[in-house]
Structures are given as C-alpha cells and as structure tokens.
Amino acid sequence: MTNELHSPFADKTLKRKFFRKHLANMLLLCLIPLLILGSLAIYISDRYIRLDAQRSQEQMLNQYNELIEIIAAEVDSLSLSFDMDPKITTRLSSILSKTNYSYDDIEALFYLKNIIDVPANSKPYVHSVYVYYENDKRRFLSSREGLVDELSFYDVSWFPTYRNQTNFDEIKTEVRGIHQYAFEREPTKVISLYKFLSVKGVRSSKGVIVVNMLPAYLEKAYQTMNEQPDRQFFITDNEGRVIMHSGGSGAAAHVPSVRLTGNTDIAHFDEGLQHITVKKANRLQWNLISVVPRTSLFNLPAALIAATGLLSLASLAICAGVALWLTRKNYQQVYGIIHILESVDSPNPIEAIPQKADDIYALIIQNIVESFIEQKYLKVQLSERLYKMQALEFKALQSQINPHFLYNTLNSVYWKSVQLTGAPNAATQMIELLSEILQYALNTSKQMVTLNEEMTNIDSYIGIQQMRYKDRFEVIWDNVQPFADCRVLKLSVQPFIENSIHYGVEAKAYLHIKIKIRLRDSVLSVTIVDNGPGMDPSRLSEVRAVLMSDQELPGHVGISNTNKRLVLQYGQTCRIKLLSKKGWGTAVTLYYPQHVGDND
Questions:
Q1: N or C, which end of the chain has less CB nearby within 10 Å?
Q2: Are strands 473-478 and 511-520 parallel, antiparallel or unpaired?
Q3: How many Å apart are CA 114 and CA 307, to the nearest integer?
Q4: Higher confidence at residue 52 or residue 350?
Q5: Which SS3 state, helix, strand or coil, does residue 237 take?
Q6: What tens digit of pLDDT does each residue of 552-587 get?
Q7: Structure confidence by residue, pLDDT tens digits, 9-62
C-alpha cells in the first residue's frame, strides 16, 4: 500500500484532479458572466448593423435600378415607333427591300434615321442603334452609317443571335465586341439589347431593334453611387452570364451563382466570407448583385468578439494561477493524511488525523481503489491471450462480357439482315464495315501496325460515314504507298478523321479531308488537313495547353488518349502538333519515329 501511495502516477493523477476541480469552479465564476454579456452585445450589435448594411445595399441597388429602367424606356420608345406605328413600319420595310430609291424614299429614310439618331447622339450610354426588318437584301438601318447591308457592314455578329432567338416577348441582352476599323487592337465592348418586332398572333419576329450600350457608362455610374471601396458589383442576365462588373472588363472575379425565384424582388444572403445582396431589374431581366466582405460590414461585432476573446484568455490565465495555488495547498494537506496512513505499520505513534477531512478521505479511498483495480486489470490483460484481428476483404465479382461476343453478334445481325431482304443491302454493308473495324480494334495481339493496316481500318470507317453523309465529304490520301510498311500506333489516326467529319459536315456544305504522309530523318509524319470550321486563337491555345499538360480534353477523349499514347511510346517530342484558323480549317500532325519502340 505504501508503494502505491508514493507512486508518481498517483501523485500526478491527484494533482490533475485537484487542478481540474479548482479551475472549473473558478471558470464558472469568471467566464460565464463574461461570455453571457459579450455574446449579448455581439448579437445586438450584429443584428442592428446587419439591418443597416442591408438598407444601404438596397438603397444603392434601387438607385442603379432606376438608371436601368431609364435605359429600358429608351428601348421601349424606339419600339413604339418601329413596331407600333404602321406608317413607319411599312415605309422602312419598303425602303429596305428596294434596289432604287425615289426622292420621297430618301426623304423618308432621312426622317427614319433621325428617329434613331436622337437617342444614339443624345444619350451618353448609347453607342449605336440598328433597326432591321426581314428583307431579302439583308439591309438594316444604322444610326452611325445609315442604310447598310450585312455583307458590307463591319458589325454583323448580332445577326446569329437574332436568328436563333425563340422568345420574342422579352428584351434579350448580349455582351459582345465591335471591330469598326482593322487597326483596332481591341474591339469596342458593347452591351446589345434586342427588342424583337413581332407580328400579332404569330410566334415569330418580323425584325429587331438593337441598341448597343457602352458598359463603361454603367461602370462610371456605379463609381458615383458606391460608398464602399471594397464592394464588388455585378450585373448578370437571367441565365447568370456577366454583363458588367465593377472590376472592369479585364478583371477576373468570382460571380456568385444566384437566381431570384417567384415574385422575389430583392434578397440578402451570405456566401463564405461575403455578404451578397441581389435585386431583380424586371424590365431587362437583369440581376444586380452587390458583394461586400463581411469583415468590412461587421467591424464592431468583430471587435467585440476579439475583446471578449482577450478577456476570456486573461480570465483563464488568472483562474489557472489561482487554481494552481489551491491545488498545491490541498495536495499538501492530502499528502499529510497519506503520511498518517503509512505510519500505521510504523512503530512510531500515529499522528493525529484532521477532523475536517471527510471529502479528502473519500478522494484518497477512491484513488486507492482505482489504482488497485487498474493494477488488477493490467495483470488480467497480461495473463490473457491476445486475439488476432482478421480482416476479411470481399471482392466485388463482376462478370465481364467477352468483347468477341460483340463481333459474333454483328455477324449474326448481318446474316439476319441478308435473310430478311434476300440480298446484301446498305445495312449489311455498314454492318460488314463495322465488323471489320471491331475485329481490328479487338485484336490485342499487337499495338504497333503498318500504315497500310491502319489505312485499311480508316477506309472502313470512312465507308460507313460516306453512307451516312452521302456526297458531303471526300478523303484524299497523299503519298501513302511508298510508306505502306512503316510502323504506326494502332488506332491513332482514326480519332482525328472522326473529329474532322463530325465538326466539318456541320459547318461546311462539302468537306475536304487530305491525309499527307511524309518521312524525314527516319520519322514518319501523318498530317490530317480539313477545311472545317477551325478554331479561334483562344480556343487553339486552350487545346494546346491541355495536350501539353496530359489532361483530358473535354468531349475529345480519343484525341487526349492518342496524345498520351504517343508520348508514352515515343517521348515528349512526339506530341500532337495542332494548327487551326477560324473559318479556314484545322491541320493535325502525328509523328512516328521508325526503328524506335515499334516492336509489338
């Protein structure tokens, strides 16, 4: 018993128990009132500051909404003239369709242009106004150039938007650029508002009014209304596309994903560390979004939280010091009692036991019992056998379909089709070609094939596509026979032929694809050139970056996998080379070093 009472474990445990008990008592007396008062102050200040911040946000958005309503009123004013006035509608439609003009036509055209010149020249936010009625000469009236046509005018990118529109009841918004002169490095950014001129009782449009606004005016107006320097302001359309934001046209900012539903006109919510206010500009179907860091809105609650935290830490330190002093004092008392208990076996007289030590005695007895139980438990643990843990792993068994069953099934479908028609037909021809492609793909005995074998497989694929797009494209093989025995990666050329046909037949009336084969310095190059839609510089740079990073190109898994296979087989120098120009076409070059890693 003496050894148990003097063990370091018992001393530390007893000290910890005394310390925790005294510290808890002190914290209850000091921290609870402080936390209650601090929390109440934080809650009240946060509530009133939040309400004031929301009112400030709403006031700014309401002012901005009034400006947008003025802009919408200008569009409606033009609509009253060119959509509701039959004289103007009839006269302008007639002028747009004529080849030769009389003196009355010229005078009428001057009057009509003056109608759209008024807002274009008097309103600082208006860049230009176009009025178009359906006519076979594709002419329209411009506030800048007068009567123009689609073929000669510098700005016709709004035509596809007008053609593709299906909802003619609302004003459509589009952010786009206008290149007026060839020497301009950057296009003039405009926000185009489309007001469709509809025919009564018909779900179609007879024309459109396009009002091109300058976003710089909206940004300047925001600067005059804004009172918080760290606020971000966005305008988005009803599909979430950004129309304007306070960072300028070149700034990249995170746009909150918000959409007001039902009859909700304005809403407030928090997203991460931002407080967001959204207001609906109903006439143009715009969302006005104000984003303010919560830290700038709620400085006072943050200061109260910091002060409460510091006071709590100070109180904790004071309480810990007092608790430590009380612990030492009580421990000395307990140690004296333990010394009395130890002196029972001693020949010396027993020291007097303190009369007021009921709680201390209970604690000592409990400690002794706990120590005894712990030692007994350890002995039982040492005498018991250790059980081995068994981990059972269940493997999910999935039956895999033998790919050759697909080939056999196609053969069955082929003969059934012949049986039904009594002779080979277009369907059987396609099945036969597809069977050849599948057999070629399922042959896993070799990954490297000759150019002639790859070309034969591609011809089968082209045969299927020719039956689908009859007289819509042609494929020309250039200089194939001299290099027919050269080794290439299996199924590495076909994805690019497929890509050319897929995008080319949609964009061109007749697609030309040319496959050029060259051998230079023991490196075979295969170039696939088409006259398809091509890519603009930004898209081309994006695709090249993805191919260089070995990431997967969305929507083009076959091309990404082919690029990776070429790199793994031949090294980094044999990545796909890609050239493209919007409206001209695309050229893809694959490189196959000969006598290097070309064994099966």
A1: C
A2: parallel
A3: 67
A4: 52
A5: coil
A6: 767 666 778 788 888 888 888 888 899 999 989 999
A7: 456 676 677 667 766 776 676 667 767 776 776 777 677 777 777 787 888 888
Helices (H), 443-536: 451-468, 494-507
Residue matched to tokens 């606020």: 231
- By CB atoms closer than 10 A (0-12, 13-18, 19+), residue 116 is buried
Domains of the chain, with CATH numbers? 2-41+311-346+356-378 (no CATH), 85-217 (3.30.450), 475-593 (3.30.565.10)
Token pair belonging to 525: 């190059």
Q: In angstroms, rounded to a whole number, what is the distance separating the alpha carbons of residues 144 and 579?
A: 38
Among residues 556, 562, 579, 580, which one has the least CA distance to residue 507? 580
Question: Is the distance from CB of 42 to CB of 319 less than 8 angstroms?
Answer: no
Beta bridge partners of 177: 189
Angle at 579 between CA 576 and CA 580, to 5 degrees: 135
Alpha-carbon separation of residue 566 from 38, 112, 129, 544, 593 (angstroms): 66, 63, 53, 15, 10
Task: Please determine, for residue 125, whether its predicted confidence score (pLDDT) is greater than 50.
Answer: yes
User: By the 8 A CB rule, do 588 and 558 touch?
Assistant: no
DSSP 135: -
What is the C-alpha separation between 209 and 216, in angstroms, rounded?
Answer: 22
Closest CA to 128 of 99, 154, 92, 93: 154
Digit-coded pLDDT (tens) for 259-290: 666 566 777 777 777 788 888 888 888 888 88
- Coil/strand/helix, residue 201: coil
Mean pLDDT of the chain: 76
Length of the chain as a residue count? 600
Pair 490, 446: CB distance under 8 Å: yes
Pick from 226, 158, 223: nearest CA to 190: 158
Nearest to 128 by CA among 69, 212, 63, 28: 212
pTM over 0.85? The answer is no
The span from the CA of 172 to the CA of 285, in Å, is 8
Q: In terms of C-beta density within 10 A (0-12 exposed, 13-18 middle, 19 or more buried), how is residue 360 classed?
A: middle
Give the model's confidence band at 472: pLDDT under 50 very low, under 70 low, under 90 confident, else very high. Answer: confident
Classify residue 574 by its DSSP letter: G
CA pair distance 358, 400, nearest whole angstrom: 77
CB atoms within 10 A of CB 95: 21
CB-based contact 587:529 (threshold 8 Å): yes
Helices 404-421 & 426-442, crossing angle to 10 degrees?
A: 170
At position 554, the amino acid (one-letter code) is P
What's the confidence (pLDDT) of residue 362? 47
CB neighbourhood size of 388 (10 A): 5
Please say whether the beta carbons of 133 and 196 come within 8 A.
no
